[in-house]
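Everyone, carefully examine this protein record:
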Amino acid sequence: MLQIDYIHVRNVVFGEKTELRDGTLILNRQELTRIADSAVFSNLQIELVRPGESCRILGIHDCMQPRCKADNPDVSYPGMLGNMGTVGEGRTVALKGVLISEIYYAPCNIKYYLDMGGPCAEYSNFSRHCHIIIDAKPADGVSTPVYTEELKKASLRLNVFLARKAIGMAPDETEIFDPDKEVDPSLPRVAYLVTHMAAGDNWNFFLYGQSAEKMLPVVVQPTEILDGAMLWRYWEPNYYLQNEVYIRTLLRRHGRDISFVGMVINNNVTRIDSKKALTMMAVQLCRKTLRADCLVINKSGMGHSQIDSMMAYKWSEEFGMPAVISLSAVSNDAPSDMLIVSDPSVDAAVNSGRNFILHHPKVERVIGEQAHVPSLEGLDVRGPFTHSTNFAYLGIWSQLGDYYLTTDRDLPFS
């Protein structure tokens, strides 16, 4: 059983002492800089931005909710930070309403930006949070993999350091997830299969600190994913793993109208023969090991992962297990349709979100102005400009199914 205790943070300010008091997180800027800094960085700045500010964040790469294990903070992110140990059970403390966010300076074809105020802010769930931003540039001669890894570790160090401040506090909100509770055996047995992208040193995910490259499909406890066992090094904000929408929904329904029997993680590969083999193996784990009656299939990755999802769907149906797949932003609405593969036999799909063309006003403040967002090349990043949200605007939707209209609805925009 996993218990997550949330402490609500309503404001973040700089001050003399780092502490959490009456819903306000007070930060000693020099202390946070010292904790996050590394010889890998040429310089590092800690910035704050709040909902409603006339501020545009450029090159924003990751957002994480500060969390730690209440009884053993040193195993909050095993294999990535601190000591090795199991997660997914016990008590975890989380700060709700604040994020540790990273500016990403390494070259990459996909980088995101975010407006914290103005008309475009309402298109991102991340505009609802206060952001503690790590603005760290790589030193000369530092490789992208080394920089990316150290940036993630800097974020995790701040993540745990701040969450520790709330360990002894009474929670404002508590969630309990118990995947092992006994349920009515007549309920349909539902398994969850997710393909994640592991395409290299940077675009990679890690389980207990182990690279997913060349990983075979594996059964994991769903609460482990919510509790820090898995991290993306570069791809989507890890906030979406900490609050994985399908896992939380399936666990909440476990024992009510379904029996959630567990999940399988598959690694997205590029060769068609390998895709056929890995998706078959993943579905067989759901069928033979988890003994599922039906599958929910999801993915985090671009077109290649759509192929894996459709192959998994077809294997599932072939093995007698009805399936449904989640595909992000694949509607026919303008400005773009991101569905690159279509098979008429795959006839049960959930479309999670869509893209828009947004008109961005001029802002008073820009963070990460030198981070170079390729999609904004040639534009005045301070505004005004017009741009599609497609793989550019952070928080409008996630590959795993979050959508700005439904995610973090309990947090105000400003």
Remarks:
- Helices lie at 29-36, 144-164, 222-226, 239-242, 245-253, 272-289, 303-318.
- The chain has two domains: 2-174+357-388, 178-352.
- The longest helix spans residues 144-164.
- The mean pLDDT is 93.
